[in-house]
């Protein structure tokens, strides 16, 4: 499995870079109206989901656990489409949507890390990303009435750390190709 993931290491890096860009936008404009934040979030979730889906399908013929990335991708695409095409509903359920997406994505990242534990050194980066994602979701479930600025900062911190961890994981995967 590691060789198949390593072949597409750049997808992890690209997802990480997208998360870092999203984080920067959240920090620069924390007081954006909630509807604009929903559009940014919807675009991020949709594109991140597409990349996960592509990654999963690229390894499908060579690995029996391709479904983890496909499921993560489908979840991201669905959440992104809801945010983009139903912004009124999304505004009402933004915190719950983000929390649910974060928890499920975190669980799937941990599942992937467990599958890679015998093939990849330092798979802990994916585990940490997954744990961080789950913790972020739990915090959002616990604080549903937090202000828009606070949510923007939470999202920014989450996306920044998650993005850096994905970039690090992608670079580790790239090193397995050259080793």
UniProtKB/TrEMBL annotation:
GO annotation, cellular component aspect: plasma membrane
User: What is the protein name stated in its UniProt record?
Assistant: HdeD family acid-resistance protein
Which species is listed as the source? Chitinophaga cymbidii
| Keywords noted in UniProt | Membrane, Transmembrane, Transmembrane helix
Q: Which residues cross the membrane?
A: 9-29, 35-54, 66-85, 91-112, 124-145, 151-171
Please name one Pfam family that this protein belongs to.
DUF308
Tell me where on the tree of life, at the top rank, the source sits.
Bacteria
């Amino acid at each position: 499995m590691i060789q198949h993931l390593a072949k597409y290491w750049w997808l992890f890096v690209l997802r990480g870079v997208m998360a870092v860009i999203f984080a920067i936008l959240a920090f620069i404009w924390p007081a954006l109206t909630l509807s604009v934040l929903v559009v940014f979030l919807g675009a991020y979730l949709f594109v991140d989901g597409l990349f996960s889906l592509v990654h999963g399908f690229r390894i499908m013929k060579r690995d029996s656990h391709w479904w983890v990335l496909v499921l993560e991708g489908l979840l991201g695409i669905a959440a992104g489409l809801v945010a983009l095409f139903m912004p009124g509903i999304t505004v009402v359920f933004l915190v719950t949507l983000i929390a649910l997406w974060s928890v499920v994505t975190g669980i799937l990242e941990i599942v992937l890390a467990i599958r890679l534990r015998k093939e990849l050194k330092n798979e802990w980066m994916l585990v940490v990303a997954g744990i961080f994602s789950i913790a972020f979701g739990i915090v959002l479930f616990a604080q549903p009435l937090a202000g828009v600025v606070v949510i923007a900062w939470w999202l920014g911190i989450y996306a920044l750390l998650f993005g850096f961890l994905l970039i690090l994981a992608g670079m580790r995967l790239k090193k397995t190709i050259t080793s």
